Amino acid sequence: MTARRLPNSGHIDRTQALSFTWDGEPLKGYAGDTLASALLANNQQVLGRSFKYHRPRGLMSAGVEESGALVTVGQGARRDANVRATTQELYHGLVAQGQNAWPSVRLDVGAVNGLFGRFFSAGFYYKTFMGLPPFEWGRGTGMWMRYEKIIRKAAGMGKASRAPDPDPYEHAHAYCELLVVGSGPAGRAAALSAAQAGLDVVLVEQDAVLGGDSLSQPQARADLAQEIKTLSTAGVRLMPRTTAFGLYDGGVAGLLERVTDHVATPAPWMPRQRFWTLRAQYTVVAAGALERHVAFGNNDRPGVMTANSARIYLNRFGIRGGEDILIATNNDSAYSCAQNLAQAGAHIKLIDARDTVPRQLRAQAEQSGIALHTGMAPLNALGTKGVTAVELAQGNPGNWRQAGVVECDLALISGGWSPIVNLLSHRGIQPVWDAQQACFLPAPTTEPLALAGSAAGIWDQAACVRSGQAATQCALAHLAGQPVPKADQPSGGWEGAITPLYEVSVPRRNPKAFVDPQHDVTTEDIRLAHREGYVSVEHLKRYTTLGMATDQGKMGNIIGLALMAQALGKEIPEVGTTTFRPPYTPISIGALKGRNIGGHFRPLRRTPLHDWNLKQGGTMTMAGLWHRPWYFAGTGETIGDAYVREAETVRRTVGLCDVTSLGKIAIQGPDATELLNRVYSNPFAKLPVGKARYGIMLRDDGFVMDDGTSWRLGETEYFMTTTTAHAGKVMAFLEELLQTRWSNLRVHVTSVSEQWAGVAVAGPLSRQVLESCTEDPGCVADSTLPFMGVLETTLKGGIPCRIARISFSGERAFEVYVPSDFGPTVMQALWDSARPLRGCLYGLEALGALRIEKGHVTGAELDGRVTVEDAGLGRMASDKKSYIGSALRKRPDMTRKNRPRLVGIFPRDRREIFNAGSLLCAADHVEGYGEGWITAVTHSPALGHWIGLGFINGGYGEWQNREVIAADPLRKGNTGVEIVSPHMFDADGERVYG
Amino acid sequence: MLRIPCPFCGTRDHSEFSYGGDASVDYPALDAPAEAWLEAVFQRENIDGVQEETWQHLHGCRMWIIVERDTRTHEIHSVRPAHPGMAQTQSPERGPADRS
User: Fold this and answer.
1) For chain A, percent of residues with pLDDT exceeding 90
2) Is B100 contained in some domain?
3) pLDDT greater than 60 at residue A930
4) Where are the alpha helices (DSSP H) in chain B?
5) Which end of chain B has fewer CB atoms surrounding its CB within 10 Å, N or C?
6) How near does any CA of chain A get to the CA of B20, in Å?
7) Contacts for A704 with CB less than 8 Å, ≥ 6 apart
């Protein structure tokens, strides 16, 4: 191949030369070049090595379907593998490398694989390494697992960078009335007519430059620039470098905008790519069509490419791909390419598989000095690292005979065109085979979308423009709620009919002919799959990996289907096609994640006391989305030291803990009591004003949903608290009940979790702390505020507050709620009075230790599989009233005696430690799932050893004084434990009441 | 992505909503026998076609709504407030499209 840049042609900016390196070699190109065109202009032929056989590969196309020139672009953390050179814009300083080759793509040691080609046929790896008979029969995939690593190394593509992605990505959202995909003649016509009719139009184009096929025509560029200006003036939002990679329900389109992939040094504030979610009321798909190859011997040699790509390189980039060019076609489209190349000074030999060629085309060819031969097709390409000649065949499809050799340095193939129906396939619109045009076209649809241009199988440019305008009419009718007119632009537009041509071969000659070059799938692989019994295209695809490479079958799918149909003796429509799924072209993981990384991985909730907690030296931990204080380490303290000291201090004096994250719901209205009585399993009908009650909520199916307290503030008003974990779920459930089932109840529920800051004041001296903070110290006396008493009062400084005497720790304790903005002030005041009492601040870890000692359950225990009885709270389930879950909690399996019940756990040897998550097993039967499991462990300062909570079949009664093993085979091993009552500390609750 | 026309807020992405369940289920009285509750909680039709389902506009107005959706095509035929009283206040002539 002797490609060269011609003077003064193409749509590149010759005033702007750009330097880049290819495999270390410095080269030059121009602004407006793709990496592919710049490499071609530098006469670089071998750009890659194939997947399995390491065969040299060059450019096969000029677009997204490229399967030969897959290269690695960029360096260091920005190294990007498997980039299609045909879609990578050239920029100054671009560094590109060949991949899947050592030491280089030109001289690759792995090419020895090609000599063993017959071993690498379809299914070779699986047959060889999975279950080698007879040694591995029935033994699964052991061998495969062992060899897979080696195989993956030998067969592969580029290597991704292992460093974190340094580039930012963005998610963006947009709306429009009409989305037009593709800026070729049809897309531009649709967009312009729609904008002129007043629609809000977005036009997306995957290419850097708008124009589509117009860019590869030899006419002057001025027209096109003017046309695009008109579009912009008419209000069309133009989005170049943006791929519509998928269409989804409700008119939603996924767009990927490449913002800085073409920039040498992107500004640090610019995202590399933008992931758009666009909601369009109507969509016109004018995505164009892809030219097909033909399977013939060594059709993957560098220098064999589609005819249209040579036309693109010539007219858009000013590069003549060769001097002696063979063009092989089966349709009209290659004739203009031949003519353009001939005018550019190349010697053209044009062979057409058809017997007859339209007279006008023949005349044009003759005028341009092109030698035209009909009834001929390429049989075998010669030359190793670049085509030097092509053996020809004569006859007609299915009946070829060898017919001489023609020397050439470039072989251009046109095997017909495949409309890009991928986006419609995403919407479940199955393509239908059009035998006349030898291509798949989408079936009619009621979806709000229309096809235009060559995506609809229309080959004539004027007809493409009309089809774009017709598509706009469909959009207007749809938006006006009128019947949508039928497309009146018929497919077709060539003067002579296409003669389907998928493979050229003659008997007794069997050179490798590639169907899917990216995965090295050959014609023989497909026939082998058929011989081995694969008849469905879906199976064929998976067995041969046809269409499973990064091009997702853009290059070879139709040929594969045709060969399968032939092998089965069927027609293509009978064989069917596989379904295209998003994305149309690959998307980087970075674009999918956008900015949701690191600390922004999920939303963060901070309590009003967050900064205060940090200032006191609190270490934070995640509780759902909340950041909560975990522990407050003193000088030199570890987490273990800190929480043990905190828990011990709470039992001895007093501790303060930020409990703002608890869910808080205001329940107001005449039927508030009735609502609570229906949703809690325990009675609420007679709770007096000024009292709180602990309550359990079940789900409809009778299992425990959540627990919490409800405070009666007035006749018609309650303040409900939920667990942190289930706050959202409880709120949504109450709303569901009131709106869907009990719409006659006069109750309002309002989430006030954000409105109130909460502090637990716990310990024997807790009342003293409150006394010094309330305006009326007497209000927290035992007589006025007994256990479970509720009070609305004011703190010093006139700060309104709600106090309930509630205990999670098992000590005398209060929960104090103040409006969020007062949180830090109140916390400081409480701390100022707690500190002189030798009190402490405590975090989640100490909170856990205290509640485990008391056997109080939390989310770790209430995991959705637990009944009220399982949690040891059977007395909380009323038998005197009906409530949510009361009917189904009595099902036989939920009431059986040997269900796993909540128990306390001590190590048999009190010096031992054991882990949460361990299985509880009978000592003589440490096996399987065991008899139960451990949900939580802590070191208990009160008891002086490690303790745990868990569930075991039958509960304490069944297991007291029996030997039990806490089995933790992956971490700690076995530990001998005792099963005890879950109430491990102060079982009678004297400290709470006292 | 489904686009759901909320009767209160207009058309929004389905990611703002959370799915409830089969809206045709008539939940029995709380004191109804367990058999009635078994039927309501566990027995579901696997409808191939249009079904009524409840959704909550969780990250919006928090209203529960009843959506008539075709399970094969995701086409949404109608949307109305789940609360019968609120459904009455929305006149049939005034579709959600007016507010989108």
Assistant:
1) 84
2) no
3) yes
4) 34-42, 84-89
5) C
6) 9
7) A696, A697, A698, A862, A864, A866, A867, A868, A870, A871
Q: What residues are paired with A946 via a beta bridge?
A: A939
Angle A97-A101-A102 (CA atoms, 0-180°, nearest 5)?
100
* B87 in contact with A, Cβ within 8 Å: no
> How far away is chain B from the Cα of A543, in angstroms, using its nearest Cα?
30
Q: Give the C-alpha separation, A912 to A901, whole Å.
A: 24
Task: Decide: helix, strand or coil at residue A728.
Answer: helix
Please check whether residue A888 lies inside any domain of the structure.
no
Is A700 in Cβ contact with B56 (below 8 Å)?
Answer: no
Tell me if A631 sits within 8 A of A617, measured CB to CB.
no
Whether chain A has a CB inside 8 Å of the CB on B33: the answer is yes
Q: Using CA atoms, how far apart are residues A641 and A648, in angstroms rounded to an integer?
A: 11
* Assembly ipTM: 0.93
Residues A993 and A958 in one domain: yes
Residue B99: the pLDDT is 41
Do A91 and A12 have their domain in common?
yes
Write the pLDDT tens digit of every residue in A269-292.
999 999 999 999 999 999 999 999
Number of domains in chain B: 1
- Spatial separation of the C-alpha atoms in residues A765 and A649, rounded to whole Å: 10
**Chains A, B: CB pairs < 8 Å:** 74
A680 shares its domain with A828: no
Q: How confident is the model at residue B88 (pLDDT cuts 50, 70, 90)?
A: confident
Beta strands in A192-236 (DSSP E): 201-204
Chain A positions touching B86 (Cβ under 8 A) are: 739
- The answer on A66 and A146 residing in a single domain is yes
- Cβ contact B30–A887 (<8 Å): yes
What CATH number is associated with residue A150?
A: 3.10.20.440
Q: Are B34 and A739 a contacting pair at CB < 8 A?
A: no
Same domain, A924 and A993: yes
Per-residue pLDDT tens over the stretch A609-649: 999 999 999 999 999 999 999 999 999 999 999 999 999 99
Cβ distance of B20 and A736 shorter than 8 Å: yes
**Of the candidates B2, B30, B84, which has its C-beta nearest A882's C-beta?**
B30
Examine the pLDDT at A853 and tell me if it is beyond 60.
yes
- Nearest in space to A628 (alpha carbons), one of A464, A366, A848, A429: A848
Per-residue pLDDT at A582 exceeds 90: yes
pLDDT at B100: 40
Q: Could you tell me if A900 and B46 are in contact, meaning their C-beta atoms sit under 8 angstroms apart? A: no
- Under 8 Å CB-to-CB from A24, ≥6 apart: which residues? A97
Domain endpoint, select from A165, A186, A217: A165
A774 with A828, same domain: the answer is: yes
Q: Give A-chain residues touching B2 at CB under 8 angstroms.
A: 249-250
Q: Contact at 8 Å (CB) between A617 and A608?
A: no
Peptide bond into A583 cis (omega under 30): yes
pTM of the full predicted structure? 0.90
Q: What is the mean pLDDT of residues A823-827?
A: 98
B97 shares contact with chain A (CB less than 8 Å): no
